[in-house]
Amino acid sequence: MQRLYDFLRRHPTGVDTFWAVLLFGISVMSTAVQEEAGQEVRGTRSAALVVPVVLLLCLVIALRRRMPEKMLLLAIGVGVAQLVLDVSTTAANFAFLVITYTVAATGARWASRLALAVGLGAAPLAQLRWPENDSSILGTVALMIFMTVPFALAWVLGDSIRTRRAYYEQLEERATRLEKEREAQAKVAVAAERARIARELHDVVAHNVSVMVVQADGAAYVLDAAPDQAKKALETISSTGRQALAEMRRLLGVLRTGEHQEGGEYVPQPDVEQIDELIQQCRTSGLPVDFKVEGTPRPLPSGVELTAYRIVQEALTNTRKHGGPNAGASVRLVYFDDGLGLLVEDDGKGAPHELYEEGGADGQGHGLIGMRERVGMVGGTLDAGPRPGGGFRISALLPLKPAH
Fold this sequence. Notes:
This protein is of the alpha+beta class. The chain is 65% helix and 9% strand.
């Protein structure tokens, strides 16, 4: 049964053609029966006129879904011809109701309005053309109204079907749009998470590896002349590597949500208090750093503390990369009532222009770009560029309240 239903849905014109043939047979048979019975009929019953009219009206039924507007115009033309040629109504005139419903449901708006107007006028015109001989004026009016009701109902039914289809299409379109928006939001969230992890990995790897390279070069240089210094450099390399591995383990743990590693929780996010350890590490690696804290230290939002730590880390890493062998740096941490200020300066030869003029991109596509993104996420401001007296300067202001 389901297969038959699916077949009929796939071939609507075939179904309409079947009903058109059936309607043609009924119309011809009813006309023949009336003639044989000698019943009194209104209008001509000439086969030369009746058969073409019936055929055209059945054609309207057969092609109503393929070309509803054209079939409506054809039906109107056949109706006008019936009035002019005095071909009274037959069973085939049921096609007027069908095409009225079809156009109201699926046709253009102008065709729907035209079908309503013609349908409301069809019954009065038919009564005026073929009036009842023994009917009073009141009876004729009542008959007109009674015959007009089916046309109005057909149009109302078709228009309600159109409205329901449009509503369902709107729901489907909205559901599709929401699904696409959810997919887009998921992609944006994934991209943001990847960018965050990339920034973290860049900061961790760039800083710690640069320390390890400096210490390894120093150890190789003094290996024979000063074994104690070489040993100390190797110890620094070892501790720095462990710290880098611990931070990378924490970052990779983000990608394994829900899994619990043996040995406890991951390493916590760096904060402002660890800046002192960071600077001690830089000093150990041979970079002199002057560090001062102004204002009253107090707990800060975790996002602000992590951003401050990463800015100092990246700035000192850039000093080692671009400042030259004799460069020194200074770090100022200032606690304001409504924010945290950072000032990192060095007296080296300065960073390449593309590091700050091209948006802060270094060889890996991060650097100052990562700084600006971090500062932007907490609603702060960052200024980076060469110092008037030489060297490089990075200034940042991190508000305590996030930007809205």
